[in-house]
Amino acid sequence: MLKRILYLLVIIFFASCLVKEDSKRYDVLLNMVYHNPGEPKWETQYTEPAYLKAMGYTGQVPKMEVQCGLTYDFWQDNIIPEKSEEKFWIERHASEVRMLLNNAERSTMPLYPFTDVLVLPMSITKKYGEEMKIDSHLSIKRERTQELLRAQIEEIFMRFPNLGGLTIRHGETYLHDTPFHSGETPARTPEEHAIMINLLRDEVCVKRNKKLFYRTWDFGYFHTNPTFYLKVTNEVEPHALLYFCIKHVNYDFNRGFPFNTTIGLGNHQQIVEISMNQAGCYGNNSHPYYIGKGIINNWSEMDEKKGIRDLINDPNIKGFWIWTGGDGWVGPYFDNELWMNLNEFVVRDFVLNPEQNEEEIFYKYAKKHLKLSDADAQKFRELCLLSTDAVYYGQASRYFDADPWWCRDQYLTAIDLKEVIDREIKEEVLLEKIENLKKWEKLEQLAYEIKMPDIDDQAFLQVSTTYARIKYEIITLIWQMQIMKAEKEKGQELNIEMTKDLILEYENKWEEWVTLKKNNPACPTLYEDHRAVHCGPPFKTSLDNLINLVSK
Q1: In this predicted structure, which of 22-31, 78-87, 150-159 has the lowest mean pLDDT?
Q2: Whether 392 contacts 288, CB under 8 Å
Q3: For residue 140, how far is the Cα from the chain centroid?
Q4: Cα 379 vs. chain centroid, distance in angstroms?
Q5: HSE (CB half, 13 Å, CA atoms) of 328?
Q6: Cα–Cα distance between 328 and 280 in angstroms, integer?
Q7: pLDDT, tens digit, for every residue of 306-353?
């Protein structure tokens, strides 16, 4: 334990030396590790308030379900029965929240927990649920809903007065870690959003002088639709402690979409969200995928080239919110944060001093943090820049809009490629995938040429790059087989011998991947092709169909 504490203090000391004090452009820099819903929390330095404070963050957005540590006894005595499992769980959870808050307070790090408002104990929803609904959905327009929201905010700050404020999670309601609670999105229309924001503004900012970060998530509504956004926010008076949080992409954190069209609109302060995991679609930092240049400047595929560098003169933008964990459901998992650290450093250091250019920040990290020589830093730069499009075009295409969710978290699914056949672009797409593999061969070569002083980083650099090379060879085989399957479904004759060869090569590549994992403790966990969650169907279903066809 003492060794770990000393190690953390050393990290904090050196990290604090990297924080520049001369730039005051952005007042807010938040960090969040969002542990996967329903899964054990993982260990990472980015959950340590003292570490984040030393790195220049002004606040932390923890996943602590603060709304679930409330008994509502101050609203209605014994609404949750004494000596019930429900109340025991709530009181235990409240104790855990207070311990986390006390730890953060010792580091003078303000906490703004990710909060699902109107997730309530089941005893309350059982008694009053129908009074809170319109057309079978929870609605903030109902008086009982408003009454309970005010009671919730009151008890949150009574029980946890050292909170810096709240980050309102809206649009997704996850109950995986809250066995005695239920709830759903309480606002869907512009009118409902305006009612809820004004109520929260009054309770959090005006009455209690706490910060309120209103964060929505949806497809095509609040945070990506300028008309919807303005219709809501124009009904809310600005306040110095009220911020709206907007993803930098006009969609989820995926590639292939424009810069967010609601950023800078209206009269309210905004915080721009950035995820190191990029919607969980590109490896979850288990292998090389450099995002710093794309986020700061622009991505290569953008029609309108735009990045967060272009926000420097926008008075509405008051800061940024960096996710260094989460933004997915499961793995891959790993025990070395080399790739996460790189991406986090580049984005954070830019926010702290946006007069710098991306390349300058990259080399600062490579030389001062990784302690690379000039020659190795240049090779590391080449490797990282190659990875940016090698990952994206390994699973997307320049020739059509492939579904970005087909390869999410640790799952490889049966991507539908009938459009490739319909548009007669088979040869172009297949060549694109084959040519992309040459980049991975070069990436792997560079990984084994670079000499890192830290032996753990050296091992992870090499094994994670080999891991990725095999992954994209497998993905290329999936595309080849899915195109053949699409041809078969379109009435074309299946090339039996070619299909057999692809199936055999696929099996061999998986065996190579399994062997890599067995022989290298630092290797990330492997993907799955036999099941899929929140994406799908798994590729194994398609593979089995092809095996049956060639076995007849």
Answers
A1: 22-31
A2: no
A3: 28
A4: 28
A5: 26
A6: 5
A7: 999 999 999 999 999 999 998 899 999 999 999 999 999 999 999 999
| Cα–Cα distance for residue pair 32/324, rounded to 1 Å | 6
HSE at residue 214, side-chain half, CA atoms within 13 A, is 27
Distance between CA atoms of residues 296 and 278, nearest Å: 14
Two tokens at 398?
């320049």
Q: Checking phi first, is residue 447 left (phi over 0); if not, alpha (psi -120 to 50) or beta?
A: alpha
CA distances from 180 to 93, 275, 387, 431 (A): 11, 30, 44, 53
From the list 528, 480, 255, 477, the residue with the least C-alpha distance to 387 is 255
The 3-state secondary structure of 376-423, one letter per residue: HHHHHHHHHHHHHHHHHHHHCCCCCCCCHHHCCCCECECCCCHHHHHC
The upper half-sphere exposure of residue 520, i.e. CA atoms within 13 Å in the direction of its Cβ, equals: 25
pLDDT tens column, 41-64: 989 999 999 999 999 999 999 999
Rounded mean pLDDT, 9-32: 65
> Under 8 Å CB-to-CB from 80, ≥6 apart: which residues?
71, 72, 73, 86, 87, 90, 121, 123, 124
Residue 247 pLDDT > 90, yes or no? yes
Task: Please tell me whether residue 29 adopts helix, strand or coil conformation.
Answer: strand
Vertex 534 angle, CA 533 and 539, to 5°: 55
Percent of the chain predicted with pLDDT > 70: 96
Q: Cβ(281)–Cβ(415) under 8 Å?
A: no
Q: 155 Cβ partners below 8 Å, 6+ apart?
A: 70, 71, 72, 74, 75
- Count the Cβ atoms, other than its own, within 10 Å of residue 83: 6
| pLDDT computed for residue 18 by the predictor | 46
pLDDT at 5 over 60: no
Tokens standing for residue 542: 């398609």
Q: Does the reported pTM lie above 0.70?
A: yes
Q: What is the mean pLDDT of residues 421-437?
A: 98
The pLDDT value recorded for residue 1 is: 45
Backbone phi, then psi, for 52, in 5-degree steps? -65, -40
| E-state strands within 363-411 | none
345-389 residue pLDDT tens: 999 999 999 999 999 999 999 999 999 999 999 999 999 999 999
Quote the DSSP letter at residue 304.
Answer: S
Q: In angstroms, rounded to a whole number, what is the distance separating the alpha carbons of residues 244 and 267?
A: 11
Of 540, 274, 283, 538, the residue nearest 409 (C-alpha): 283
Which residues partner with 317 through β-bridges? 270
First to last CA, the chain: 62
